[in-house]
Amino acid sequence: MSNTTAAQPAKRSLGDIDLRAVAPFVALAVLFVFGAMVNPNFLGLDNLTNVVTRSAFIAIIAIGATFVISAGGLDLSVGSMAAFVAGTMILFLNTGAVAGDSGMIAAAMCLALATGALCGLANGLITTLGRIEPFIVTLGTMGIFRALTIYLAEGGSIAMKSQELRAAYRPIYFGNVLGVPIPVIVILVVAILGAFILYRTRFGRHVMAVGSNEEVARYSGISVNRVRTLTYVIQGICVAIAVLVYVPRLGAATPTTGLLWELQAITAVVIGGTALRGGVGRIWGTICGALILELVGNIMVLSDMVSEYLIGAVQGAIIIIAMLIQRSLGRR
Amino acid sequence: MSEILTPSPTDPPPAETLLEATSISKSFGPVEVLRDIGLRLVPGEVHAIIGENGAGKSTLMKILSGHLAPSKGTLKVNGEKTAFTGPVDAEERGIVLVHQEILLAPDLTVAQNIYLGRELRRGIVLDERTMAEGAHRAVLDLGADIDPKTVVNRLSIAQRQLVQIARALLVPHRIVIFDEPTASLTPVETKALLKVIGAIKAKNAAILYISHRLPEVKTIADRVTVLRDGKLVGTYDAANLEPVDMARLMVGRDVSKLYPERAEAKTGETVLEVENMTVPGFTRNASFSLKRGEILGFAGLVGAGRTELLEGIIGLRPANGSVRLNGNAVQFKNSKQSMEAGIVYLSEDRKGKGLLLGQSLKINLTLAGLDKFVRGMLIDRRREDQALDQAIRDFDIRTRNRDLLAGQLSGGNQQKLLLAKMMLLGPKVVVIDEPTRGIDIGTKEQIYKFITGLAAEGKSVIVISSEMPELIGICDRIIVMRNGEIAGEVAGEHMTEAEIVVLATGATMKEAALVAEGA
After folding, report:
1. Which domain-ending residue is among B401, B425, B449?
2. Mind listing the pLDDT tens digit for each residue in B164-178?
């Protein structure tokens, strides 16, 4: 009997590495090489910093989506939710309800986070208590959040009125700390927090369990509805954090704010190796996926090989290709 | 081991072989489930296949009926070498399989079901009348007079099974394979079915008959082939083989040692009292109690409501009734509450409700008792690793390495992992549903030892099982359920299969004896 080895940890060898976990990082490396060949400016620090900064919205939202999808859910409403949170946040900023620029901005940020959390809570409660497919629920709320934004903007856009406030808020997107752009820092902080929660806490373990098999989770004494609902709340908070970085960029919310972000966020999650059926969540893979999406767009702009108007088509193709690769790696 | 092979294997029958399987092997990935099986079928014989769960019976049947291709070996039908392309191909060669589960469309009529997928037409219009007549003749042939226009969901289980058999026999057949046809039948229905098999046999077809009920095999079979651990033990004349011999051949050693010796049970005060428990749609007014150190069995037919009753008590299903734990009234809304109160439940559905097959052993082990591994906010992974080492030792979980996924373990090791997972909670009451389903005999013995060990430690155990010998072997007392109600209780010398069958089916003692001991 060879079961004497049972108590020893298995030695890691090359063959043991889970290709699905590594694949996104390999793809990212390949893109770097490809980008460098296409245009020497690609590897410039300015260009790369710019790419990472621009990936911030999708990366942060996709971290939330990693939780939702790991637990076996789906949230299609993130793009509309971002527009809605941005719209309400700017409307609040425009009221000037709190004295002092920084006080005003801090209050608006808190409001945005609360709004995002509540939107997520709504998605979660309708899904779990109503026992409706998350696909349908978030399709519905996607329409609701979008329409509410357009209604608040009266068909146009919602812009920050106070120039001083704009100037005070601007650094959150355009500023840097020791040369590192603030959006990049936000990505890192959110990702580290996300990874901590997903991998090291009881809640994260429960997310994986619920996504793997809801019945097993229930029979193991886990409150499935609570876990599911909380993943949507986390998603909502992530959307709000993305909005905090987004608003100073343009200082406005428009009917097209956040359009197709749900596609990009889900694509980033799937490219990153998180299983769409739940049970496997990879935060760093998701970040990698968001970077890949942004890099592909960047290379398209720099290379002239494909019209940049086709970026959406390329991103759409990437999610399909990523799924095909996951399938074939999974089948080995 | 040769000394237990008292009955000598029968010589292969002469000439006229309908089906011959030679050196059949089957592997799934690295796991070999059948090795070098040889089997011959001649016209007009009832050939029983017996073996423990996991002995490879179903795999062999699937190969013989074209549902699976063998990895090695040859099949000859009527002396002609054959490789089936699928079940339809096998049917065209006269081999039909009657599935264990009922696979009928419940909203269609008997005739529509019998002709499903092979409807008769006149031009483009269905020829309802001819089909109705054909269907009626088909069920009459089986000794049942069922109106072919009846909708199937209005039939009893036994009638449905007859319809299913009639449907299978509509294909011109030389060989009929029955996969545990009597598993959910009452004694009376079983008798009727055995008559049907006699009728098929009389038409000179061969019948392959899989069953766990050895007395029944003794009654009906002409020859018996025994499988053990995927290997052929031998083929024997049923006339020379008593049920006890069959059991010995199946297990490979004396079966009387399977159940651990138990010292006179030292049961203590009442731990759990259940009164008038009703699980809507499943059980009505069930009352029972459980003592400290006791092993209480729950017997009954499939669908009698045993699982649902216990799931209702521990909060996994909506239920009404009073539950007292150590004298205190409790009402569990979910399994977390019952776990915290010290009651754990190990589901019969290990793969669907017990373990996360796609996750590691460690994640599975600590899932229910995760609170014990949380320090501050963090999960203490080192203590999780230690717990896994401990569990692997304590429960003898055999695994190549500890990074395997739970789904890669054998059924027996999965059950041990599930036990380890629930024992981490330090329960006072352990409910185990079908503890040895799909588990090999060696592991069974370990599980029995473990269960009796729990009772000896002063824990109370409830075992739900469909295997009566198992309940009789390890329990102090057995509650028998029928149609959602507690039909009675047996203990001491009354713990016999016949008495349990009487309570479980409502049959008379005489009928039960016929089934339990073979008519």
Report:
1. B425
2. 888 888 888 899 999
